[in-house]
């Protein structure tokens, strides 16, 4: 039995996003956090850690095609509060089209201090990251979280997902509290969300 045209229309953007991700991953595998966009359950889990009642900007690192961005908006984050830091110019164009009220910054999230120095007008309420941290040296990861904490309001979360079994950033960082979600088995591949807050 053929699929109704409305169902085909709903599936097409997801399929297009998967093709975009796969193409980008083939071109630069270590720059991509995933081969496919984040699943809905993973995206919702990440968005859950962002306080909708706070006023500051919400910075998303490596939004790709916007799977987590959509979950943040569905959670109740005003799109005007979103600052989307994306390296890939093709994804930047797509994000500007899909989220015209958000501020899309084409830049290197691993040089976050330089990328955000003139962008944020207030401390961030959250930094939500889809970056492939485990593919980077530990010093790069630690520099990223240091720069993220410098941009965050006191106690605000740095939210990161990973497919790895181990945390992307050590749990034993001095002055940093860490929590983790349950493993999200309904994501392909299964993932876990880690949340870091500066004490």
UniProtKB/TrEMBL annotation:
GO terms for biological process: methylation. InterPro entries: KsgA/Erm (IPR001737), SAM-dependent_MTases_sf (IPR029063). Keywords: Methyltransferase, RNA-binding, S-adenosyl-L-methionine, Transferase. One of its GO terms (molecular function) is RNA binding. It holds the Pfam family RrnaAD. This is Methyltransferase. It comes from the Bacteria. It comes from Bradyrhizobium centrolobii. Transmembrane segments: none annotated.
